[in-house]
Amino acid sequence: MKTLSFVNNKGGVGKTTSAQNVGTALHRFANSRVLFVDLDAQASLTRCFGYSNLDFFNADSGSFILKDKTFEEVVISTEVGDLLPASMGFLATEERIKSSPIFPFNLKFALNKIKHLYDFIVIDCPPSLSTAARIALVASDLYFVPLQAEFLSYEGLRNFLTFASQLSMICPDLELGGVFATRYNPNLRRRLSIDLIKSTKKQLNEQFLDTYIRENVAIPEAQAHAMDIFSYDPDSNGAIDYYKLTREMINKRFTKDLMEQLLSQTR
User: Fold this and answer.
1) How many domains does the structure of the chain reveal?
2) Cα–Cα distance for residue pair 160/39, rounded to 1 Å
């Protein structure tokens, strides 16, 4: 079992989109049992599955972490895996999590009890260096950072990697799974975007993934319809890119057997 976090302290770079579609690809093409965990009070991932962020105000991922609710009381079954939803109530929950004597291991300890049920746990984090981001990283085996090819996103990446490296002192097994570009198309010849990606690749070497996610109108359309990109438009650039990204993640970071299983599937 692997726990993966999608994190970046900047918003709008594709964390939620990537968590949803990579997790879905793992389920659809590798026959994996996947648990999605939404740790953002904005509940973007929860809404991508068609639920309101008010539906679970008293029974969300925060209440599970704090043991106010059992896993069975909170978890939702979907066509592509299970979901621990988020709600606006998570804002109040964060203060209780932070003041807990087991912080920042709250989520890790909570997931330890149910992780045997899944092959992958996929965590969507808020766009900040917050309590939620901290407990997500501590609970993770690998974290992946979507990077939009613009200057502010590039600056945010450096700050975030510094933050994550500090956590490695208490979580020596935590690894950067990779950084990957989103909303990026080198064929458009935007000089700044291309230079930023080249610079990041040079600094991170093999930790910068080869696959990038192109700007694609089908992705927000799919989310508006509460669907993953593979269900909404399997022939779109978004579906092709997220399929390739998931293959690369498995090839570089997971087991050989799982990679072979994924490659044997057809889209």
Assistant:
1) 1
2) 17
Neighbours of 182 (CB within 10 A): 23
pLDDT per position as a tens digit, 223-238: 999 999 999 999 999 9
Torsion of CA 242, 168, 104, 76, to 10 degrees: 20
The verdict on residue 260 lying in a domain is: no
Mean pLDDT across the stretch 170-190? 82
What lies within 8 Å, CB to CB, of 223 at 6+ separation is: 17, 20, 47, 48
Helix axes 15-30, 237-253, angle to 10 degrees: 70
Please count the other Cβ atoms lying within 10 Å of the Cβ belonging to residue 55.
Answer: 15
Residue range 103-111: mean pLDDT, rounded: 96
Distance (Å, whole) CA 167 – CA 240: 34
Q: Is residue 168 within 8 Å of residue 138, measured between CB atoms?
A: no
Range of the domain at 25: 2-253
Contacts 24+ apart (CB under 8 A), 127-131: 127/8, 127/9, 127/10, 127/11, 127/12, 127/13, 127/15, 127/40, 128/9, 129/9, 129/159, 129/160, 129/163, 130/94, 131/94, 131/95, 131/97, 131/98, 131/103, 131/104
Structure tokens at 260: 């072979």
Q: List the structure tokens of 71.
A: 């896993």
Q: Both tokens of residue 229?
A: 């990109």
